[in-house]
Every structure is written in C-alpha cells, then in structure tokens.
C-alpha cells in the first residue's frame, strides 16, 4: 500500500483517515506537499466563531493554527465585528485532497469566510451556508453591497498577527484594501492577490517552532504590494486570436510531475 501511494500520489488515503495521530503537533513538508502529525480539532463552535460544513471533516490543524483562530475570533468579538465563519483547515492528518485544495496539507492554512454573521447561525444553516461574493468578477470591481469596513478590519486583524506568513485574497479585494487610509500599512505586505478568493480569505501561518521538517515559503517581496505588482493582476482585453495562436493552443499540455510526500508523511497512513 505504501509503495502504491508513492507512485500514484493518491489523495484518497488521506481522506479515509478519520482521526489525528498521537503526540504533539508537527507540520511536515510544504503547504502543498506535506502532512500533519498530532493534529488538533477546532471545536465546532466557540467565542465569536462557528465551523461551517463540518461534515467535510476539514477542521483539524496544528495547535498553533487552532490557537490563532480562537484568539482571532475573540479579538473580533471585542471589536464588535460579528461572528466569524471558519471553513476548511486540514484533514485529520493533513495530506493531499482529491479536490478543492492544493495546499491546506500541513494544518497551517485556513479559510475564513468574508460573510460575517451578526449572530450565530442555526446548526442546519451551517451545513449548506452559501458564500457572499465581495467582488463583481466580470466587472473586476468590489461589490459595495456586501463589502464593508468589517471585512477590511478582520483581514487587518489577522495580518497583523506575527504568526501569519501570508493572506490570500482576490486581487480586487487587495486593491480595495490598498485604497483605504491606514496609519500603519506594513501588514499589507502579507496580503497577497490570488484568483478565487472573492468570498473568503486564506490565512497561512509560518512554520511553528518545533516543526523542524516544515518547509517554509519565501517571504513576500518588500513593500505593500499596492503598485505595479497589483496592477499586473488586472485582466487585459482579449486580443483576437490569429491562426498561429490557435495552433499553439492545440499543443498537448505537459503532465505535472508527481509529488512524493516526505517519508514521515507516508508513515502516517501505513
């Protein structure tokens, strides 16, 4: 079974595991090719937060992530920002998903929805809660009907935490944050534009102390990322395709090489 996993990089083995391994939390490998030993469970409800879609079984994380989320929601409550909705973190032992995420493999990534509830949702609503889009995708502009200072302050609150390495948001949301007047703009460096994050933001923590086999990501470039770098994300007008361009597009795409997880990860699903 172990050799079969190594050759096929099957994600289903990780999804079949329903409980964390014993021991202290340890993030192993990289965010997109790793695993989680000694994962902890985020309680499905706590001060100022609720876990949504818990039936997916993706509310496990490194102890550092669990502490971060509970502290963030508590601080958000003190600022009267509303009830925080926590989406996917990791599976019980981390690892690769068959669909939905490339990262979230080491218990150090978490999705926090930008739909902020005024009061805790009913249990039935948590199962099928619908996202609240903050961006008009086709028009490439912020959805002023849904976006408010509460969303901006929640992202700022998360980004100013020293444990946070990066936060991913849709480029339009990053643009909106850049337009605001902040006394301190240093935290904006951590907020990185990335497609798809128009109804939630993705928090990524740095490798915690003690996780010696955790592979860190390079730090973001210097500056607040609000200039030419952000402008480069804006979609360009489509140019009419020539016969030569169409010919290039018909070339078969090269298959991505199979990522073999670290040996310590393979040992977790034997």
TrEMBL record:
Composition bias type Basic residues, residue spans: 248-258
Pfam families in UniProt: Peptidase_M74
Disulfide bridge partners, by residue number: 178-226, 207-214
One Gene Ontology cellular component annotation held by this UniProt entry: outer membrane-bounded periplasmic space
Coiled-coil portions: none
Classification via InterPro entries: Peptidase_M74, Zn_M74/Hedgehog-like
Keyword presence, Protease: yes
Domain of life: Bacteria
Region annotated Disordered, chain positions: 214-270
Transmembrane annotation, as ranges: none
UniProt entry tagged with the keyword Protease: yes
GO biological process, one term: proteolysis
Signal peptide from the UniProt entry: none
GO molecular function, one term: metallopeptidase activity
Keywords noted in UniProt: Disulfide bond, Hydrolase, Metal-binding, Metalloprotease, Periplasm, Protease, Signal, Zinc
Name of the protein: Penicillin-insensitive murein endopeptidase
